C-alpha cells in the first residue's frame, strides 16, 4: 500500500513537490501557507476576509492528473482574466474557491469540493483557519547602518526584501491550526517540508504552535527537500546549509530523517553533512533538477527520488531512525544518476 504523505509549503515549491508526490502515492495531503497578501489573493483576502486562495489553487492544480480531464481543469483554474476591468489578473480558480466558500459557508468543504471537481489526486488544506501575516526582521536596509534590523510585514514584502532576512514570525503569534491538517500529520507515514520560499512559505508551518507540535511528535518520518537555488531577496547568497541553519534557529525541536539535495547545489559537502547531522538526518543527494539549466524541479526525477527514499526507509526499525548511520540502503550520501 502506498504511504500516507503530507507535504508542507506554498507557492511554486509546494506545487513542484505535489506534482512529483502524486506519482508516488494517492494518499496525499497538501498543507498550504495562508499568508499571501499580493496580487489576486491579496485583493480577495482584503475584500472578502477569506484565506488567500492563490497557493491553495496552485496546490489543487498540481494534484490534477496528466490525463485530458486533469490538464484541462488545471488550465481552467490557473487561467487569469485579461482586460482593464476589476477582474484583470484574477485567477479563475481563486474566484471559484472564494465563491464556493461563500456558498457552503465552510472553507475546508469548499476545497474538498474543488478537489472532487478536478479529480485531484490528494487533498488540499490550509495550515491555519485564519489569514496570517509574515513579519520579518531584516538587516541591511539602512545604508548608514548595515547591521541595523528593520521589521518588514507581509509575504510579498518579505519575499522581495533587499536586505538579509534574519528571522520571521507570524501575526498573530499564536494562530489556530487547521484541525484536519493536524490530524493528517499525526496519521501520516511521511511529512515532506519544502522546497519553496524558505522564510515566507516553508518555515511558517513550524511557527503555528499546534501544527508544529504535530510535526515534531508525529510517528511519521520527516523529509526536508532543499531548494535548487537561493531566492533573490529572501535568501540571496544562501547555501543549502544556510537554509537548514535557519530551520534549526526557528524550530530547534524539529528533527528530520532525510534531507534531499540536488548534486548541483552541494558546494561544501562537509559543511552540509554537518548541519544535516545536527538535524538527526541523513543526506541524500539525487538529481532532481530539470536539464534546461533553470532552477526548477523535474517532476519525474523528484518522484523517483521520493519513491526510493520512501521504499528504502519505510521498513527500517524505529531504532535506526535517528542518530544512526547516514545512509540509504547502505549507500552513504547516496547519489542516484
TrEMBL record:
Pfam families: CofD
Organism domain of life: Bacteria
Location(s), subcellular: Cytoplasm
Gene Ontology MF annotations: LPPG:FO 2-phospho-L-lactate transferase activity
Cleavable signal peptide: none
Key words of the record: Cytoplasm
Annotated CDD domains: YvcK_like (cd07187)
Region (Disordered) location: 317-337
A single Gene Ontology CC term: cytoplasm
Gly residues bias (residue ranges): 326-337
GO biological process: regulation of cell shape
Keyword Aminoacyl-tRNA synthetase set for record: no
Matching InterPro entries: CofD (IPR002882), CofD-like_dom_sf (IPR038136), Gluconeogen_factor (IPR010119)
Family statement drawn from the similarity comment of this UniProt entry: Belongs to the gluconeogenesis factor family.
Function comment: Required for morphogenesis under gluconeogenic growth conditions.
Identification of the protein by name: Putative gluconeogenesis factor
Amino acid at each position: 500500500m502506498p504511504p500516507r504523505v503530507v507535504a508542507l509549503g506554498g507557492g511554486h515549491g509546494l506545487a513542484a513537490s505535489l506534482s512529483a508526490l502524486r506519482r508516488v502515492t494517492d494518499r496525499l495531503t497538501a498543507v498550504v501557507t495562508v499568508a499571501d497578501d499580493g496580487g489576486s489573493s491579496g485583493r480577495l483576502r482584503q475584500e472578502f476576509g477569506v484565506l488567500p486562495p492563490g497557493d491553495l489553487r496552485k496546490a489543487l492544480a498540481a494534484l490534477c492528473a496528466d490525463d485530458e480531464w486533469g490538464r484541462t481543469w488545471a488550465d481552467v483554474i490557473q487561467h487569469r482574466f485579461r482586460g482593464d476591468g476589476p477582474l484583470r489578473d484574477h485567477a479563475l480558480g481563486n474566484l471559484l474557491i472564494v465563491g464556493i466558500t461563500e456558498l457552503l459557508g465552510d472553507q475546508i468543504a469548499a476545497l474538498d469540493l474543488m478537489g472532487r471537481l478536478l479529480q485531484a489526486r490528494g487533498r488540499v488544506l490550509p495550515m491555519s483557519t485564519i489569514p496570517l501575516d509574515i513579519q520579518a526582521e531584516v538587516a541591511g536596509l539602512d545604508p548608514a547602518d548595515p547591521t541595523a534590523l528593520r521589521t518588514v510585514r507581509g509575504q510579498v514584502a518579505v519575499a522581495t526584501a533587499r536586505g538579509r532576512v534574519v528571522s520571521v514570525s507570524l501575526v498573530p503569534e499564536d494562530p489556530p491550526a487547521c484541525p484536519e491538517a493536524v490530524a493528517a500529520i499525526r496519521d501520516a507515514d511521511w511529512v515532506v517540508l519544502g522546497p519553496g520560499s524558505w522564510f515566507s512559505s516553508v518555515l511558517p508551518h513550524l511557527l503555528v504552535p499546534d501544527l508544529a507540535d504535530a510535526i515534531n511528535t508525529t510517528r511519521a518520518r520527516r523529509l526536508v527537500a532543499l531548494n535548487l537555488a537561493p531566492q533573490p531577496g529572501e535568501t540571496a547568497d544562501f547555501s543549502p546549509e544556510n537554509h537548514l541553519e535557519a530551520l534549526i534557529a526557528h524550530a530547534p525541536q524539529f528533527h528530520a530523517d532525510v534531507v534531499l539535495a540536488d548534486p548541483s547545489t552541494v558546494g561544501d559537502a562537509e559543511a552540509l553533512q554537518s548541519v544535516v547531522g545536527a538535524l538527526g538526518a541523513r543526506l541524500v543527494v539525487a538529481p532532481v533538477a530539470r536539464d534546461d539549466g533553470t532552477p526548477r524541479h523535474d517532476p519525474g526525477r523528484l518522484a523517483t527520488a521520493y519513491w526510493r527514499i520512501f521504499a528504502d526507509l519505510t521498513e527500517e526499525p524505529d531504532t535506526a531512525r535517528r542518530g544512526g548511520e547516514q545512509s540509504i540502503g547502505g549507500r552513504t550520501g547516496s547519489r542516484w544518476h
